[in-house]
Specification:
By secondary structure, the protein is mostly helical. Helices cover about 70% and strands about 0% of the residues. Helix 3 packs parallel to helix 6. The longest helix is centred in the middle third of the chain and has 34 residues. The chain is rod-shaped, with a radius of gyration of 27 Å.
Length: about 160
């Protein structure tokens, strides 16, 4: 068939361009969300760093308060790895519990928050698996310094400690 030469053609473009995620094609609300979403990783990294520092400080304080107990444990035969395991368990218990509750809440609330997500699926597997793994790894690293300090407690010195 023939095309009418008087008909104006609009919106010509390639198929690839029509599926591209571009701010020009988004409505104004989602465009604003996209602008604000660019700073989210910075705030997430700051929050992760502060939580690691806080967890490390709490565990270090707990170790310093329990120096005598740790000394007694080591004096009666506890190995350094047992003390390390005890400190790591103490530090990681709230992290694991919080992560489990957080994952349950995330799965429950994803449908509600779906309208706020721009360019990401509410059940994105990389996000849903990556964030908890990063959190647990950072918490393990944060617990290592106090655990190492607890392993180096000398039983004789700890027993004299008031």
């Amino acid at each position: 068939e023939r095309v009418d030469p008087d008909v104006a053609l609009e919106g010509l473009g390639t198929l690839k361009a029509s599926f591209a995620f571009d701010r020009d094609f988004m409505d104004a609300d989602h465009s604003e969300l996209g602008k604000h979403a660019k700073v989210a990783p910075v705030f997430a990294a700051i929050a992760l760093l502060l939580s690691a520092i806080g967890l490390s400080a709490v565990i270090a304080h707990s170790v310093s308060q329990r120096t005598k107990e740790i000394g007694v444990r080591m004096a009666i035969g506890a190995a350094a790895r047992d003390v390390r395991r005890m400190i790591l368990r103490e530090g990681m218990s709230p992290v694991v519990i919080g992560t489990l509750f957080g994952m349950a809440a995330a799965f429950a609330l994803n449908r509600v928050l779906q309208s706020q997500l721009v360019g990401v699926s509410p059940y994105d597997p990389m996000t849903m698996a990556g964030a908890p793994v990063i959190l647990v790894v950072v918490a393990l690293v944060a617990c290592q310094v106090p655990a190492r300090r607890a392993m180096q407690v000398e039983p004789v010195i700890a027993l004299r400690h008031e």
